[in-house]
Amino acid sequence: MQLAYSLEDIRRNRYETVGEFAKTLKISPATYYRALEGRVEIPTMRQIAMALHMAPASIAEFAPPPSSTLLAELTAGVDAALEEGWLEVDPETLEPTGRRVFEPWPDSNT
Hints:
By secondary structure, the protein is mainly α.
């Protein structure tokens, strides 16, 4: 699983103003604001990603939407976990404990 980071989070973690960050990305502040709204073209996405030394898909605003196949697999996995229980993991190591937990998904209406 690849994590995606928001441009605003990246900017704030660098303690840069919009103008400074736009200069780092070699774009105008107006283009930066368009990027935040997901309204930039692919070459600009690549330029921004290269300036940050990141893959374009690891920038939240540029991450492609999930396919219907992936969404169906995720839905099936959540449905199975609601029936069979969620696999518990150790919070320190994230290794499975072998125990199943029967707690609802936070957004489910069950």
